[in-house]
Design the sequence.
């Protein structure tokens, strides 16, 4: 009270900094000096939310998001509809989160585009994982390659339901011919998290493989992406 009276007498009002400002600076310093690996998921998410919430403590919201979705990767991959289910999440926060997702995907896509895909297989898997692992419905992505196995085009060919994606072999091959692709890699996700290929996955892959072979188009692999891993049909000896 005395300090407040002294401030009033001198005509000066000294505003105290919000309690979280010191925490923000410490977190920024930790990131700069030790790198992102030194931060747990909610701390990295706090940093991401700083600019979206300049006058609020971001820790409670970051923790709520991690609790809801499970990890930093799952938060930035979550749909706008599901993000809005969290109290305090509005358009500004969603935009900030989706910028982070787009940035991650674009960086990985650049790595994939800069070299022959078969010589950078881990980059291909990282790229597909970021783009598909946490999607809530199945989707089929096709990577179209030229004769040097460089990426011509990456296209989401079909989207489906939580456990099924329609796959039309002739449409896949037709698109490959339009792009003058000499090889393709099929990729689709399993929202259940289990990347084990189903009987229909195997059947459709064999149909595509058969048609592609007659036209001298090579099917390098069919990769199934789950939340915590992937399965290669070629690795399983299925193609």
Sequence:
């Amino acid at each position: 009270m005395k300090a407040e009276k002294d401030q009033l007498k001198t005509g000066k009002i000294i505003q105290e900094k919000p309690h979280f400002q010191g925490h923000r600076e410490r977190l920024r310093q930790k990131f700069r000096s030790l790198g992102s690996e030194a931060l747990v998921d909610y701390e990295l998410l706090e940093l991401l939310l700083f600019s979206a919430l300049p006058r609020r403590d971001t820790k409670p919201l970051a923790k709520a998001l991690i609790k809801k979705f499970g990890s930093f990767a799952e938060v930035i991959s979550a749909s706008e509809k599901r993000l809005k289910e969290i109290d305090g999440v509005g358009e500004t926060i969603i935009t900030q989160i989706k910028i982070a997702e787009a940035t991650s995907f674009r960086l990985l896509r650049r790595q994939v585009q800069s070299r022959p895909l078969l010589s950078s297989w881990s980059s291909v898997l990282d790229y597909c994982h970021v783009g598909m692992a946490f999607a809530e419905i199945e989707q089929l992505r096709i990577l179209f390659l030229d004769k040097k196995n460089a990426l011509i085009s990456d296209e989401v060919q079909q989207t489906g339901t939580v456990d099924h994606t329609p796959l039309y072999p002739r449409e896949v091959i037709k698109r490959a011919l339009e792009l003058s692709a000499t090889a393709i890699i099929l990729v689709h996700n399993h929202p259940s998290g289990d990347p084990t290929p189903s009987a229909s996955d195997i059947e459709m892959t064999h149909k595509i493989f058969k048609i592609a072979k007659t036209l001298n188009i090579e099917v390098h692999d069919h990769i199934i992406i789950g939340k915590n891993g992937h399965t290669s049909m070629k690795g399983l000896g299925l193609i």
